Amino acid sequence: MNEKFYRLPQEKQLLIINAAYKVFARNSYKKAGTSEIAAEGGISKALLFHYFHNKLALYLFLWDKAQDLTKEAKEQYKVYETNDFFEMLRRGLSAKCMLMRKYPYMSLFTMNAYYENEPEIHEAIGKKVKSGADDAYQTIAEKINRDSLRGDVTFESIYSEVLFASEGMMNQWYRAGNRDIDTFETQYRRMIEHWEQVYNRKDQP
Amino acid sequence: MNEKFYRLPQEKQLLIINAAYKVFARNSYKKAGTSEIAAEGGISKALLFHYFHNKLALYLFLWDKAQDLTKEAKEQYKVYETNDFFEMLRRGLSAKCMLMRKYPYMSLFTMNAYYENEPEIHEAIGKKVKSGADDAYQTIAEKINRDSLRGDVTFESIYSEVLFASEGMMNQWYRAGNRDIDTFETQYRRMIEHWEQVYNRKDQP
DNA sequence: CCTCCGTTAACCACTTCGGTTAATGTCAGC
DNA sequence: GCTGACATTAACCGAAGTGGTTAACGGAGG
User: Fold this and answer.
1) What pLDDT is stored for residue B203 in this prediction?
2) pLDDT at site A205
3) What is the number of other CB atoms lying within 10 angstroms of the CB of residue A150?
4) Which backbone phi and psi does A180 adopt, to 5 degrees?
5) Measured between CB atoms, does B133 come within 8 Å of chain A?
6) What is the pLDDT of residue B205?
7) How would residue A131 be classed by pLDDT, with cut points 50, 70 and 90?
8) Does A131 touch chain B (CB under 8 A)?
């Protein structure tokens, strides 16, 4: 990773990063071509290798960037600073959409990167990650006020159901060609409303 | 498509078909290699081209096969021969798992094939499909007895939520390396129980 | 022994792979 | 106008992989 990359105009950096996210998100590491990334990013391949010293370094840079951005976004939108589950979902959605607008393929990249089977990647990523998903569940499960949730199903099952549906929705959006984030956001927001209707505790004093 | 392929022992046919499903499911059409398919299927590339006259023909054969298998499985498990939504889900799950056991990558293939952007494929598939997903919703929505479902959320929103969660679950299972269908089945079955608990009408006479 | 036929190793011309080299284009300072 | 430093790229490298073909092998039946 060459520090000259950071001296580029922001928009050019963004173009290159998004090109890389896109190509790596849609292909396995092995079959994602650096030429394709360079072309998509509007620069020559030589220049791409001038900024990132090889394919692997670029990939890992993207991974770290995604981690940082995600963490920042969660803080910025105060995702964990509420104990209302649905409010947390709404804030999480806002954070996610903000990111998706700026980095359309980042979340798809992240999802795939975690399960990348190329040994170099798998090893490098494995070291960086500390079972982040489980961590998140722990954090949330402790924070949430369950008195406002119906008591006949466990929070765990609600949580996992919500998580699966989110992933399914996002995946479908990507497959359909991930245009139109606004549509995604309203659709997702409607789904949160649905959950709020279904999972809240009705028989409160 | 050479009819000699059908004269092969069933298990060899299966091996080749599943190899092709796997490679096409995990890569875009363009980047899926016929050599890889042949190797994975345990035959030489020449023989593969002896059975299927080119890459495109193989792909479309797989698509048709998937359609037929899915339709058969639904009939075999009488998926649409009930008006209880959750029973329908359970039967659908059984059908799906039966298929997944025999053709592990078929459903992933199907999902991706529908959105394949290679023009040849997109065109050929587009002709074959008649918005099957919408059709399915219509069929189900008419059939289902809504008196046993809670009335404060629409069936449409329940249906789409269930669909998204299913897709999310399956996708995650694939990404994690799709071993162990039993685990998938019990996990899914637990989710159906969750839905049944959440969506049924409580205040019945 | 021969003929058939399933099967494949080897090959085809061509593209793409990750990565490099050598040469350009650009622009500030003199 | 000139120079030197840096940004940028066209062209190239050998290696590998592409879809697809060809010619030959191997073993069973007559």
Assistant:
1) 61
2) 45
3) 16
4) 65, 70
5) no
6) 45
7) low
8) no
Q: How many CB atoms lie within 10 A of CB B171?
A: 19
The residue segments making up the domain with residue A155 are: 3-199
Q: Which tokens in the block code for residue A102?
A: 């700026």
| Residue whose tokens read 């997109």 | B122
The span from the CA of B164 to the CA of B161, in Å, is 5
| Whole-number Cα distances in Å, B15 to B21, B31, B50, B103 | 10, 21, 16, 9
Would A205 be classed as within a structural domain? no
Q: Taking CA atoms, what residue in B is nearest to A162?
A: B165
Report yes or no on A204 lying in a domain.
no
* pLDDT, mean of residues B145-165: 94
Q: Which residues of A touch B150 (CB under 8 A)?
A: 198
Compare all CA atoms of chain B with the CA of A113 and give the residue at the minimum distance: B175
Domain count, chain B: 1
**A112 and A101 Cβ atoms separated by less than 8 Å:** no
pLDDT by residue (tens digit) across A88-100? 999 999 999 999 9
| Model pLDDT, residue B128 | 82
Segment B124-135 shows an average pLDDT of: 77
* Neighbouring residues of B204: CB distance < 8 A, sequence distance ≥ 6: B148
Whether A183 is covered by a domain: the verdict is yes
Chain A contact set for B198 (CB, 8 A): 150, 153, 198-199
Please report the DSSP string for A30-74 in residue order.
Answer: TT--HHHHHHHHTS-HHHHHHHSSSHHHHHHHHHHHHHHHHHHHH
Q: Is residue B204 part of a domain?
A: no
Query: What Rg, from alpha-carbon coordinates, does chain B have?
Result: 19
Per-residue model confidence (pLDDT) at position A91: 98
pLDDT per position as a tens digit, A46-103: 999 999 989 999 999 999 999 999 999 999 999 999 999 999 999 999 999 999 999 9
Where residue B164 sits, what CATH number does that domain have?
Answer: 1.10.357.10
Check if B119 contacts A (Cβ < 8 Å).
Answer: no
How many degrees, rounded to 5, is the angle at CA A72 between CA A66 and CA A74?
A: 100
